[in-house]
């Protein structure tokens, strides 16, 4: 008789060494087939970092860990620039399942489905409209398994250092009437987050792919126009080095545009850009952008003169 299986959150008392060994066992056949998934040989430190991205669920059977899945919401373009490989990772309405594994000796018993259900419940509770995962394109048996579970392929990507291309698969959660797609408001906002993350990484090819060929950028304060995508990329690529971008806000607007506010630190200077973005066919086609520079306020503006007034840093 097979022992009963319990699905629960990872506990502080659980061994990350045991969890890492489980991942190695589950992903070994994929590694043997030439697909160098991270979980094939990841360290305990990598396991720890990945389970900290969001809730980690484990399947326990007879006191042993026999399965696991970690789920998280949108990646942060400021801290997780690696997610710029696809805008799907920067949507606020899509949760992501990672390091999803079942011990080979326990596969075929429905444990994977129970772990996935726990992830879907978490995503639904936290306001997500869909759940996503990605896998190797050559892993056709996994792609078919996920299709049967309700996932559809929405994008392909190439991760750094991987010997294979990956496919992103998305499943709308129960109650969602319109499935997320790559030309809706959330995806437009995700494109902008991806662009800023690509600029920060100096990933010019990745940034260029987000623009329509005839995209237009207008710098309002200086009256400058850049009239195609190549010029937009070039002006950023040749800008004097030493700058760093921090994304403060990216928000879809009711009229179909997206607004973003970013801060650029360059030497002793702090610069801010308000940008209004337009889209067509899943690409950026127009940007109106206003830049400003941080400067100390004039001496006459004080709490004594104004009342309810303060300055950053308490000055």
From TrEMBL:
Entry-linked Pfam families: Acetyltransf_1
Annotated transmembrane regions: none
Alphabetized UniProt keyword annotations: Acyltransferase, Transferase
PROSITE patterns the UniProt entry points to: GNAT (PS51186)
Ranges for domain N-acetyltransferase: 5-174
Classification via InterPro entries: Acyl_CoA_acyltransferase, Bact_Acetyltransf, GNAT_dom, NTF2-like_dom_sf
Record-linked SUPFAM superfamilies: Acyl-CoA N-acyltransferases (Nat), NTF2-like
CDD domains reported for this sequence: NAT_SF
Identification of the protein by name: GNAT family N-acetyltransferase
Native organism: Pseudaquabacterium terrae
Lineage: Bacteria, Pseudomonadati, Pseudomonadota, Betaproteobacteria, Burkholderiales
